[in-house]
Each structure stands twice: as C-alpha cells, then as structure tokens.
Amino acid sequence: MELSGSRRNKKVITSYQRALGQERAKRHYYNKLKLRDDLQRQVEQLEAQYDQLVRTMFGNKERQNQTSCLHRMYVELAQVKRTLTQENTELERLKANYLTVEKKILQLSTTESKRFSTLIQEQTDRRRNPQLKLGRLKANYLTGEKKILQLSTTESKRISTLIQEQTNRRRNPQLKVNLLTSDQFYDLMAESFLEIKEFRESKNCSSTGMDVFGWRDRHIFNQDKVAFSLNKVFHGQELEKIMGGLWPALLQPEIMVKMHPSNAKRLDEEAVVYYYTHERDEGAVRVRAFVLVMRLNLGPEGYVIVFRTLNPKTYLQQDEGFPSSGRRLKASHGEHVPVIWLNSFVWSFYEYVGNQKNDFRYTTGGEIQGNALTSANWWYIEMLRAAMDFETQVIGSRGLLRL
C-alpha cells in the first residue's frame, strides 16, 4: 500500500511539473508575439515618416534638371526595392506559418505514435483484464481521432479564411500611390498636346477612303504601332452643352460603369486618375492600368480630353497582394496568373465649326500597338464601333442618320 501511494504521489507531482512547464512556455511565447507586434508597428511608423520626408523634400523643389531627374529615378528604384522587400517579408512570414503548422502536425503524429506504443505495452501487461484493456484502447483511439479531426477542421477554416482574404484583396485592392505633383501633371498635359498637334498637322497621313455615317479616318503606320483619328461634324449640336454633360460624367467613377474604375485620386476640376482592373479568360490573365483623364480648354478653338496611362513603377507605391510590374500573381488554385499593365494613349478633340458655333467637329484618336490585323484594317472597324457607341450614348442615335 505504501509503495502504491508513493507512485501515485509521484505521478501527481510529474503532472503538475508538466503543466507548470507548459504554462511558462505559453507565457514566453505570447511575450515574444507581443514584442514582435510592437517592433512591427515601430517599423511601419518609421517607413511612414520616411515616405513623408521623401514627399516633402521633392514636393517643394522647382522643375528638376538632368541631375535631379537621375536622382528621381534613383528614388523610384528605391521605392520598387522597398515594395519587393515587403513582398519578400510577407512570403517569409507565410513560409514560417506553414513550417509551424507542419511542425505541429509532426509533433501530434509523434505524440500519438508514442501513445499507441504505450497502449500496446499496456495491452501486453494487462492480459488478465481484457475488458479494461479494450475499454481504454477504444477511449484512447476516440480521443486521438477527435484531436486529429479538430486540428483538420481548424486548418481548413484557416485556409478558407486566407483564400477569402486574398479574394477580397483582389476584388477590392487597397492601393498606396505616390502623389502626382502639379508639375508632373502639366508636363504630361503638355507632352500629350504636342503629340496630338503633331499628328493633326502631319501631312504624311493616309486614309481608308471610307465614309461611314459621316465618320472619316486618318492614320499613320509607324514601326510597331498605328496612330489614328476618326472625325465627324455634328450639325445643330452646341459644343458647350455636350461638354457640360460629358466632363462631369468622366469625373464621377460610379457613372463610368463600363470601366469599373475605383477613383484613386482627383487632382482638380480638370483632371482625375482612375484605377482599372479586369480579368480575362476566367482569371487566366489580369489586365490593370492607372488612367489619367485630363481636359484642356482651348478657348475659341474648343476642348481636348486626354486618356493616358501612368507608369505603375512610378505611380504605384504599394498594392496589397499584387505586384507593381508585369510579374505573375499566384492564384488561389496554385497557378500563376500573368499581370499585364496597359500602355495606351487616347484623346478626343472637340472644336467649333462655323461662325455661329451651332455645329462642332468631334475627333477621337490615339495610338494602337501594331499586330497582324492592322494591315487588314481591323483596327478601323474596332475604333469606328467605339466612336459610334460614344455617339449613341452622348449625342443620341439620331445623329447617325443626319449626314
């Protein structure tokens, strides 16, 4: 009896020491987690202060010379490097989480193996009491099965949550962009206007010779792209009235339902930046773009509206879950999805016709990257369809019949 009581006391002491050790390990683990979170917040605060200092320093400078341009390129590369570093840190964190889960599963498997070995040993030692042996084996088996099921359910929920978070980030991305300064905006506007003026004044343009519902074309093939324009005169239409309804619509992203944009930044009453994203072939390709929409009032000559994509390496600072260049994304099903950033330039010219200003000419143009279909005039058919859609939506279908 004394020997049995001594063994029982020894088991109680061993269980208490084990529980005490587990509690200490748990407390030490949570202290480490808290310290890591505090350090992470400090890092984010320092990065935010650094970004603010960079924006402040470059926002107060005048137009930069060649040396400052090189410095700006260096800053852009540094920002790209920081973005890549952040992505690498996130990948390391995910890898660490995966290794932790794998380690837990291995530990559980090892524990269960040891426990079953102990049960087998107990079975050998307790042959004289088969009913007690079978009951304990069944209870231990059910306990282990329940633990494994709980772990599997927990991991399934966690993976489902991660997939849902990734889907939400893809559908509603949180974007951090570099500020577009007034100097950069006016430089883009001046560059765009000079390109438009050069094309309109060029004497090297060709034409298909077709006249479809009053639309006429001009184009120039230049290496791997074609510069084009389509124009039509609208009689009995006041330009100010058309522009008064068109431009406010372009400033409101909820009205531009065909572009599905998210209003990233509104510079002023004459410019706005849209973020555009679209998946093709059921997610096989993701197309993205930052589109700067600008309006220039030329006074008596009319108006110019420019749609020009921005360089994502310069404009995009951080995007949750998505790279800022033409790299590949990893989809939820494990395959890599290529990301294509659009590079386009489209413009619309609205000018008065006649002295009474009761008529106006609408010219839409831009540049298209060359392909095998340009020689077959497919580009003309597509652009003509887009121009006629614009005419129907803004002016009305009756304009198609008034030649």
In short:
Keywords: Coiled coil. Residues 29-111 form a coiled coil. With 403 residues, the chain is of the alpha+beta class.
Number of helices: 7
Mind telling me which CATH architecture of the largest domain this is? Answer: 2-Layer Sandwich
* Quantity of strands, as a count: 12
In helices, the fraction of residues equals: 40-55%
Distance between the termini: 115 Å
Averaged pLDDT, please? 74
Please mark out the parts with pLDDT under 50 across 5 or more consecutive residues, or reply none.
257-263, 320-334, 399-403
- Work out the radius of gyration: 34 Å
User: Structural class per helix/strand content?
Assistant: alpha+beta
What spatial form do the alpha-carbon principal axes imply? elongated
State the order of secondary-structure elements, H for helix, E for strand: HHHEHEEHEEEEHEEEEEH
Mind telling me the CATH superfamily name of the largest domain?
START domain
| CATH topology title of the largest domain | Alpha-D-Glucose-1,6-Bisphosphate, Chain A, domain 4
Characterize the biggest β-sheet: 10 strands, mixed
Total domains: 3
Coiled coil: 29-111
Keywords: Coiled coil
Question: How would you describe the overall organization of this protein?
Answer:
This protein has 7 helices and 12 strands. Helix content is 53%, strand content 22%. Strands 2, 3, 4, 5, 6, 7, 9, 10, 11 and 12 form a 10-stranded mixed beta sheet that branches. Strands 1-8 form a two-stranded antiparallel ribbon. The protein has 403 residues and is α+β, with helices and mostly antiparallel strands. Residues 257-263, 320-334 and 399-403 have low confidence and may be disordered. It has helices spanning 2-59, 66-125, 130-171, 182-201, 239-251, 312-315, 378-395, and strands at 175-177, 216-222, 225-234, 262-268, 271-280, 285-297, 303-309, 316-319, 328-330, 336-341, 345-353, 359-369. The chain has 3 domains: 1-49; 82-172; 176-401, 2-Layer Sandwich (Alpha-D-Glucose-1,6-Bisphosphate, Chain A, domain 4), CATH 3.30.530.20. The termini are far apart. It is elongated.
